[in-house]
Amino acid sequence: MLICPQCKFENSNTNKFCQNCGASLTQKVCPECSTSVPLNAQSCPNCGTDCGTVWWAIIGKQATGSREIGTGGDGENEEAGKDEEAIPSLSPMPISSQLIVGSYLDQEQRYQLLEPLPSLEELAANTEVCIKVLDCQPYQISPLEAILENCQKGLVTTSVEASRIPQLAKPYIALQPQGHPGIPPIHDAWQQGDLQVVLIQDRSNWPRLLDLWQQNATSSLKILHWCYQMTQLWGVLEPVNCCQSLLDLSNLLLDEDQTLTLGRLYSEPFNKQSVADLPADLADQTSAEQKQSLTIKALGRVWQSLFRQSQRTQFGSIVQMLGDLELGKIETIAQLRSRLEEMSSEIVAPTIEAFSPTEEQYTTAPTMLQFDEPEDFNFKNDDMPTVVLPMQLSSLQETGHTDVGRQRHHNEDYFGIETNINKLELPKTRVLQARGLYILCDGMGGHAGGEVASELAVNTLRQYFQENWLGNQLPTEDSIREAVYLANQAIYDLNQKDARSGVGRMGTTLVMLLIQDSHAAVAHVGDSRLYCLTHKRGLEQITVDHEVGQREITRGVEASIAYARPDAYQLTQALGPRDENSINPDVEFFEINEDTLFVLVSDGLSDNDLLESHWQTHLLPLLGSGTNLEAGVTDLIDLANQYNGHDNITAILIRAKVRPNLDSQR
Q1: Do 129 and 93 share a structural domain?
Q2: For the whole model, what pTM was predicted?
């Protein structure tokens, strides 16, 4: 099937246009010059910009007799044959000893070689080669994706899944639900005889850790931060026996935010070819290490190699740490993290004060950066100290969109976005100061009522903060509440002036986000919501709806009983129908201490747990700087129209990225 890039609708393979939104399924638009480009083209014919979908293909050869699995050809698992119709066939390798640029890696002629492939017959056992391939059918769901989807739906047994998937692919699949940015996502995989093929995200052009490690402008605190990220990855990789992935210096890369990532995964036993690519000293140590279980001493040796190859002098505390690692005085990953945290605190402590999370300190107080780990692994240590690191905003992007929906005749939603950014960048200094005000209102009161109330509320709040948000700190809680009361009063006075009564009185919900650098505040009245999405915690609903059902739950009533009431979804608060004595806006302050996607939505989008069900496909990709927020919010509106559509739909997306404030130590 073909997955539409715009609305994610599933189309027949023969469709040239999406049957849901009409988007082309045979052409894509060049991001530079907007020329229509065929899907199977590597670059734009007009401006030469790379437009093709490129994957990194890993081709491995197993030793004779070691093959556990098969996909077509001789020796195929008998159980897999029984379910042949239940799952699609994985693409077999073509029978060819050598492939040139322009030929295909698979018989379906989907993956085209961008680099020559050496003779596979001469490939030694338990070694691999890696090349780039162009996906000539990027909108086509891959056979591997189809198998995994069928497994999730219970259409295929786990034993059948195991018989169809190459061993090289299994660590990627096991780690994929974590969504860890350091692990490259897998796209496709298959096996033919003793050859395995795995296609993953191409990170071959990403900057190497070693290159930035050796730069003079890279601070000691930044180096400790990368070391800490390696310990985090170690904990993620250990359950799938892939810690060796951290031992190849050429495999340690950095993303656009200078976060440590891996180019690929290496499973035990460590790939012979990759060991050969290591520096001689580290390769010898690694080979010796494999004779016994891999320990965290290997990480210390990687760090030593990074210092040697970068010709960078080790600073005092890290010399002691590396020595303790080698002597076995640091035995567990938790102890190593604790040591790194202490070292970070020692560097930062002379230049910053202890943090106290009050509004008045927002301009100078550092962020408490707690290095949490996924709860799926058992390496979390509640006794580990918290590192006090100053965080700063590195980028702030936003977009918003509203739609009438499929059943309403007019749109009572209204939103406002104001972002002001001041940026200073020097060779050794980079400062970003940003202020953002994001308001979403869902009006009620019928035509010439709801839309008037929502627009009036947004404009009243905007005007208030233009006049009263002064300096480089967030407004106080009292100031935010005063703004909300003024918006309520403006609508209330209009109701009184027009002598509106009963259900004819207009009103609106409100959810409002204020951002000042790496600090934020949210205020809300009604059932419009704020969600936060991060890699560590996933999707979280920050606001709690002001409705009868939630009110009953706070009184101790069980949720099933509270929402069995016929008035369960009736609002208990709204702006406008009554005076300020009838409303009590919720106001909350919090820190932005990791990359975060803020999502403000009206109930046309949040109803029926739509975001909770689709956040991994429609929100998680938007955390990356390379994704388009405008396209993302359009996808959300289309999703709401597909599954809800009964109400107006509005969404505001804000992507805030932060990084350690390394300048604070200078």
Answers
A1: yes
A2: 0.57
Say if residue 489's pLDDT is above 60.
Answer: yes
**Helix, strand, or coil (residue 260):** strand
Whether residues 604 and 500 share a domain: the answer is yes
Average pLDDT over residues 486-514: 91
Q: What is the residue-averaged pLDDT of the chain? A: 81
Rounded Cα distance between 256 and 503, Å, is 52
Tokens of 129: 């080669």
Do residue 490 and residue 596 come from a single domain?
yes
Is cis: bond before 269, omega within 30 of 0?
yes
Angstrom distances, CA of residue 404 to CA of 240, 435, 442, 646, 649: 48, 30, 12, 9, 6
- Which two three-digit tokens encode residue 551? 């009110």
Q: b/e map of 42-60 (b: 16 or more CB within 10 Å)?
A: eebeeeeeebbbbbbbbbb
Does residue 631 belong to any structural domain of this protein? yes
Distance between CA atoms of 248 and 246, rounded to whole angstroms? 6
> What is the SS3 assignment for 89-103?
CCCCCCCCCCECCCC
Do 151 and 103 fall into the same domain?
yes
What residues make up the domain containing 4? 1-36
Close Cβ partners of 436 (under 8 Å, ≥ 6 residues apart): 396, 398, 417, 418, 419, 420, 513, 514, 515, 654
Q: How far apart are CA 58 and CA 624, in angstroms?
A: 25
Q: Both 189 and 214 in a single domain? A: no
pLDDT attached to residue 527: 94
Q: Is residue 599 part of a domain?
A: yes
